[in-house]
């Protein structure tokens, strides 16, 4: 009780226990000025009851005659009502109560009738009973223990009674008659620390997750009900909160013994110190969570609230429950993949030279085999096999077949000179294909590109390039940090126009590429990078600080909260929260992702498939042209055949005429 710093005590104890409590309380000076005690009737009977104590005593409590009279009247009324009730058969009562083992069944019915009796004008006041048979609406005197002539006396300073006109219990107290502990006539100014606290928080993963409840749904045991605080919005919408800070709040309430009502920030902001106009007069005020605490509408903030000088001037902070800093979040730059990614191992110049070489070699092969005395053309004239000679088309097919290792059928060079060139071309093709394969493999195992930014001192951030946008959250501790730092003033002026209302919106834009760099608390950004392996934090931490519990200035809970947090650090509880909510094993997954070799996907090799499709379309187009050309040739041959027949017929006719 002493450690709890309480000033008002309610004592419910018997005479013997009260005597011990009063003795110890007096020794610890807990019955001196500034304290207040309220006791039950039995405790007032202790022979060492201190001066100034207040208690309740039943009216006519020592008047046995009045109590017996009221009891007999109630019992008689109950027996009369039970006798009138024809449905109840009164049985014989037990002869004695000495372990007979028999129960008087009618006694149960009699108890119910007694419980229903109401005596408005009894000798001891109104007599009535609740469902358990306990007396209600009894009249009590408020007693104050006072010292008169060095003797303890009981003085009636008030009354708790049943008002017949209003039909309810009333309490009247004459405070001017009360003598408080320490023989003070003035009510103690000491306070009782409120144990039911209004606690505010804000959505910030992984510290606070907020879930909207569906109709008829309730929070799980892991969650805490958390409506919006002091606002008219979303009155019909219910929310549940869980996370790092919620587990901390639960453990804190158990450790230092308080209850709480949790609520979300009314405007979704941590708080900003801005100028507001009141009746034409500008006045600086805090908004968000800080504003509710400064205006004493809330008792505590349990959230990832950064400790900084601006806030510490207006509110009290506990010792940090987590140390962190500021860092930069960006999306990992991915290597651009085009339709011609499969051509990347060679430069454009090299590809052009290879294409030219294929056709030049094919032409030279054709010429060598054409003019060589041992070529197919020469042998064809003697053997009558001109169709087997190496023509230009076959030479091109041979050159491509060797380069692509597709196998060579008929139409190979026969002359020695052409075959020498063919072997040289095969060696060239082997080197080109091997080089292409090796270089393509090198592209696959390249390390993933590292972050584009090196940290807060990166020249691209300081020089505010037009194509590099960075931002933070308006009115946040990070925003205040940039305002304080003179060397970052140029950078802040540029990023101020891009700042977001919430961290969620900014992180979403980083993922989609709308925002290139988001500057925020390292704990949150490291969590996001662990959740999504396409995100990365850049550079070293800067602006190191910590998260603390926010309380009102001069709050009696400040020391208790700080000691509890230090104990949590020492016991390993805070480390367990880190493992449960922040790390979650995802960092290892991203490290594994980093170590896996890069692989080609459809985006990289789409050009190859398009090349095949183009070949198919080209082949179909060529066969259509061939068929049209062949059809034209057939028609032409038919016309020539007809002309030849006509000429032969005409020639025959002329010859006949000449003979005649």
UniProtKB/TrEMBL annotation:
<dbReference type="InterPro" id="IPR001828">
    <property type="entry name" value="ANF_lig-bd_rcpt"/>
</dbReference>
<keyword id="KW-0106">Calcium</keyword>
<protein>
    <recommendedName>
        <fullName>Glutamate [NMDA] receptor subunit 1</fullName>
    </recommendedName>
</protein>
<keyword id="KW-0675">Receptor</keyword>
<keyword id="KW-0597">Phosphoprotein</keyword>
<comment type="similarity">
    <text>Belongs to the glutamate-gated ion channel (TC 1.A.10.1) family.</text>
</comment>
<dbReference type="Pfam" id="PF01094">
    <property type="entry name" value="ANF_receptor"/>
</dbReference>
<keyword id="KW-1003">Cell membrane</keyword>
<dbReference type="InterPro" id="IPR019594">
    <property type="entry name" value="Glu/Gly-bd"/>
</dbReference>
<feature type="binding site">
    <location>
        <position position="521"/>
    </location>
    <ligand>
        <name>L-glutamate</name>
    </ligand>
</feature>
<feature type="transmembrane region" description="Helical">
    <location>
        <begin position="420"/>
        <end position="446"/>
    </location>
</feature>
<dbReference type="InterPro" id="IPR015683">
    <property type="entry name" value="Ionotropic_Glu_rcpt"/>
</dbReference>
<feature type="domain" description="Ionotropic glutamate receptor L-glutamate and glycine-binding">
    <location>
        <begin position="228"/>
        <end position="295"/>
    </location>
</feature>
<feature type="binding site">
    <location>
        <position position="477"/>
    </location>
    <ligand>
        <name>L-glutamate</name>
    </ligand>
</feature>
<dbReference type="Pfam" id="PF10613">
    <property type="entry name" value="Lig_chan-Glu_bd"/>
</dbReference>
<keyword id="KW-0407">Ion channel</keyword>
<dbReference type="GO" id="GO:0014069">
    <property type="term" value="C:postsynaptic density"/>
</dbReference>
<feature type="binding site">
    <location>
        <position position="311"/>
    </location>
    <ligand>
        <name>L-glutamate</name>
    </ligand>
</feature>
<dbReference type="InterPro" id="IPR018882">
    <property type="entry name" value="CaM-bd_C0_NMDA_rcpt_NR1"/>
</dbReference>
<dbReference type="InterPro" id="IPR049872">
    <property type="entry name" value="NMDA1-like_ligand-bd"/>
</dbReference>
<comment type="subunit">
    <text>Forms a heteromeric NMDA channel with Nmdar2.</text>
</comment>
<feature type="binding site">
    <location>
        <position position="304"/>
    </location>
    <ligand>
        <name>L-glutamate</name>
    </ligand>
</feature>
<dbReference type="GO" id="GO:0045211">
    <property type="term" value="C:postsynaptic membrane"/>
</dbReference>
<dbReference type="Pfam" id="PF00060">
    <property type="entry name" value="Lig_chan"/>
</dbReference>
<keyword id="KW-1133">Transmembrane helix</keyword>
<dbReference type="InterPro" id="IPR001508">
    <property type="entry name" value="Iono_Glu_rcpt_met"/>
</dbReference>
<feature type="disulfide bond">
    <location>
        <begin position="533"/>
        <end position="590"/>
    </location>
</feature>
<comment type="function">
    <text>NMDA receptor subtype of glutamate-gated ion channels with high calcium permeability and voltage-dependent sensitivity to magnesium. Mediated by glycine. This protein plays a key role in synaptic plasticity, synaptogenesis, excitotoxicity, memory acquisition and learning. It mediates neuronal functions in glutamate neurotransmission. Is involved in the cell surface targeting of NMDA receptors. Plays a role in associative learning and in long-term memory consolidation.</text>
</comment>
<dbReference type="Pfam" id="PF10562">
    <property type="entry name" value="CaM_bdg_C0"/>
</dbReference>
<keyword id="KW-1071">Ligand-gated ion channel</keyword>
<keyword id="KW-0406">Ion transport</keyword>
<feature type="domain" description="Ionotropic glutamate receptor C-terminal">
    <location>
        <begin position="196"/>
        <end position="584"/>
    </location>
</feature>
<keyword id="KW-0770">Synapse</keyword>
<keyword id="KW-0628">Postsynaptic cell membrane</keyword>
<dbReference type="InterPro" id="IPR001320">
    <property type="entry name" value="Iontro_rcpt_C"/>
</dbReference>
<feature type="binding site">
    <location>
        <position position="306"/>
    </location>
    <ligand>
        <name>L-glutamate</name>
    </ligand>
</feature>
<feature type="site" description="Crucial to convey clamshell closure to channel opening">
    <location>
        <position position="453"/>
    </location>
</feature>
<keyword id="KW-0472">Membrane</keyword>
<keyword id="KW-1015">Disulfide bond</keyword>
<feature type="site" description="Interaction with the cone snail toxin Con-ikot-ikot">
    <location>
        <position position="483"/>
    </location>
</feature>
<feature type="transmembrane region" description="Helical">
    <location>
        <begin position="350"/>
        <end position="368"/>
    </location>
</feature>
<feature type="transmembrane region" description="Helical">
    <location>
        <begin position="605"/>
        <end position="629"/>
    </location>
</feature>
